[in-house]
Amino acid sequence: MRWLIGILINAVVFVSLAGYFDGFDVSSFGAAVIASFILAILNVLVRPILILLTLPATILTLGLFLFVINAITLWLTDGIMGDSFEMDGFGMALLAAVILSIVNIAIQKAIIEPMKKKKE
Asked: Of these four, 90, 98, 100, 102, which has the most CB atoms within 10 Å of its CB?
């Protein structure tokens, strides 16, 4: 259930990014949900390999290189989705990765953690 909520949150962020930035285009909310699902699959399959291969760079940058890895997975999502999910370049993918991370952290701290505390 939490995985599905994460996919829907990412889809909403994708649609919001498309509204704010000219270099980020999503054709519909359905395309955003599919792109979010593909991104989740890439995060499970490809991201651990990228983290392992770039571990020295990640350590040297004190973890900031993880934003680059997130941007790479977003760019791969762009390549898989075709015309319904477009980013104008790697800079846009990096900006989207940073915003996506910030929004996910904020939602985690503001909504999900308090809900877990109420259940306990």
From this structure: 100
Q: Compute the chain's Rg from CA coordinates.
A: 15
Tally of helices (H runs) and strands (E runs) in the chain: 7, 2
Region of 55 on the Ramachandran plot (φ > 0 left; ψ -120 to 50 alpha; else beta): alpha
Burial class of residue 42 (count of CB atoms within 10 Å of its CB; 0-12, 13-18, 19+): middle
The DSSP 8-state label assigned to residue 21 in this structure reads: -
Q: Could you tell me the CA-to-CA distances from 74 to 91, 106, 110 in Å, in that order?
A: 11, 20, 25
CA distances from 93 to 5, 53, 56 (A): 22, 20, 22
Q: Do residues 75 and 87 lie in contact, with contact meaning Cβ atoms separated by under 8 Å?
A: yes
Its pTM stands at: 0.88
pLDDT digits (tens, 9 = 90+) for 25-77: 999 999 999 999 999 999 999 999 999 999 999 999 999 999 999 999 999 99
